[in-house]
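Budget justification aside, the reviewers requested a transparent look at the raw inputs and outputs of the sequence design task funded under Objective 1. We therefore reproduce one unedited record. The lines immediately below are the structure tokens for a 457-residue chain.
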């Protein structure tokens, strides 16, 4: 642990331009709140503490992120970034280095944060800046003729000359806690916005002989803030592109990285191929040579090697053995466990079921609350009637069972090993092993019967 480092994440702003009931920092990038991304990056520095400054009404932020390893500091009135940092300073010892981050700048990278903390060493103030083609809206970095940083001036307080400065303040900085405490106590809100500006400490630091060590990044998305949903969508795309790039370099074939979304974590074997429009959520593992067809959704699933998931299949909270064939248009709902060489074909829905090696459910079936043995063949249109309107019941199917098409298995029911069920049966009692069981009214033929003839008028 870096016992000298305390992180302060500012997250009390209202975020009115999101036009949302959801606090801004909870808006997600890849299904994870922006603020959580910032905290993840901060966490990579292994700091002594991460303090999140949240605002009035930000209780939801606290609740939703309650399992993150942070301490929460309430800023009940948003009086400015300087005021926000002061709130957190009450619990930070003088000897610490304070790293200030923004909860709405989600893509800041661990590498840049490490450089920024480094920049504060030897009693300097580390400041993260960037050169922008259009610096409008940002605080500008004012340097003297020797190129030393002298101050930061906010857009609304800047002169015409200062507005022409392309180097901007990203807002992120690192500095000794004792010193920043002193400077914060002497800033005021006598500016065009009537706010206590954190940026005012720069000039105070210079006055007290502290060097401003400005480091910059050319990776602009990592310093971009989110104020509206357009910016949110842009950063989502950047984030997705980066994940896609990483996966491709790890050896995954993405048919179109622009049509791939990962909201969570993906572990892959060798020569995995992912077709267009695939969404991966939660924790997913794909074995060697898996193929995921177009428009599939995989959430919290583990697939063995050589599995093919064909187009438009949805798999959730399930495990799949080796060499299985799934889809197209298959749905595995939670708690399905397929052994090796299983086939689950089109328009098959499964839930909370285990399937033994080599079994096939090829077409148009519902299999729920079922324990199925190996080498079973389930005919088209087979349905486990697992719900009696009140409770769920189990269906147990042995090995080498053949279930004829359009069979209803009314649970609880057990089909013995090697049993054959005649097509069209409604099975309400256990079917013995190795016998043919069927329930079906006998077929009749009425000899000489004729259809009615159309009346002639
Ligand atoms: C701030 C900087 C500006 C910089 C820009 C980068 C100041 C005075 N200005 O301007 O130099 O270029 O960020 O985006 O610091 N916040 C609080 N409590 C408050 C006010 C703000 O927690 O009382 C939080 C906001 O939630 C946000 C961050 O601080 O995450 C920045 O606040 P914002 O109002 O967006 O600052 P800017 O005016 O953009
Ligand atoms: Ca502001």
């Amino acid at each position: 642990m870096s016992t000298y480092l305390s992180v302060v994440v500012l997250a009390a702003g209202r975020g009115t331009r999101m036009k949302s009931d959801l606090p801004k920092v909870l808006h997600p990038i890849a299904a994870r709140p922006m603020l959580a991304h910032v905290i993840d990056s901060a966490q990579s520095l292994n700091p002594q503490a991460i303090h999140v400054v949240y605002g009035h009404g930000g209780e939801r932020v606290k609740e939703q992120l309650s399992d993150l390893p942070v301490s929460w500091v309430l800023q009940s009135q948003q009086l400015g970034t300087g005021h926000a940092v002061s709130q957190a300073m009450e619990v930070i010892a003088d000897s610490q280095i304070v790293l200030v981050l923004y909860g709405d700048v989600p893509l800041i990278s661990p590498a840049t944060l490490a450089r920024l903390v480094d920049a504060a060493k030897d009693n300097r103030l580390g400041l993260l800046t960037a050169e922008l083609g259009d610096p409008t809206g940002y605080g500008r970095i004012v340097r003297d003729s020797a190129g030393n940083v002298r101050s930061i001036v906010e857009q609304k307080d800047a002169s015409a000359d200062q507005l022409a400065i392309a180097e901007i303040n990203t807002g992120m900085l690192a500095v000794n806690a004792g010193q920043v405490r002193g400077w914060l106590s002497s800033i005021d809100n006598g500016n065009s916005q009537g706010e206590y500006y954190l940026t005012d400490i720069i000039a105070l630091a210079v006055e007290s002989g502290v060097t401003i060590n400005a480091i910059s990044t050319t990776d602009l998305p990592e310093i971009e803030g989110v104020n509206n949903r357009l910016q949110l969508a842009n950063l989502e795309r950047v984030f997705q592109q980066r994940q896609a790039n990483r996966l491709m370099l790890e050896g995954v074939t993405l048919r179109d990285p622009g049509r791939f979304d990962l909201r969570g974590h993906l572990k892959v074997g060798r020569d995995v191929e992912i077709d267009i429009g695939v969404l991966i959520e939660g924790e997913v593992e794909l074995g060697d040579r898996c193929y995921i067809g177009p428009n599939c959704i995989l959430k919290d699933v583990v697939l063995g090697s050589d599995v093919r998931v064909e187009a438009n299949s949805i798999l959730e909270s399930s495990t799949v053995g080796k060499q299985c064939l799934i889809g197209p248009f298959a749905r595995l709902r939670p708690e399905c466990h397929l052994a090796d060489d299983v086939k689950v074909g089109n328009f098959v829905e499964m839930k909370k079921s285990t399937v033994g090696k080599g079994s096939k459910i090829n077409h148009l079936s519902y299999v729920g609350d079922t324990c199925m043995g190996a080498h079973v063949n389930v005919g088209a249109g087979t349905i486990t009637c697992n719900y009696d309107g009140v409770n769920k019941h189990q269906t147990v199917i042995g090995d080498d069972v053949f279930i004829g098409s359009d069979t209803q298995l009314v649970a609880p029911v057990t089909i013995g090993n090697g049993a054959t069920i005649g097509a069209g049966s409604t099975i309400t009692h256990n079917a013995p092993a190795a016998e043919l069981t069927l329930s079906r009214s006998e077929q009749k033929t009425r000899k000489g019967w004729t259809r009615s003839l159309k009346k002639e008028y």
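The radius of gyration is 31 Å. The helical segments are 34-43, 59-64, 81-89, 110-119, 160-163, 177-185, 201-207, 229-249. Computational costs for records of this kind are itemized in the attached budget.
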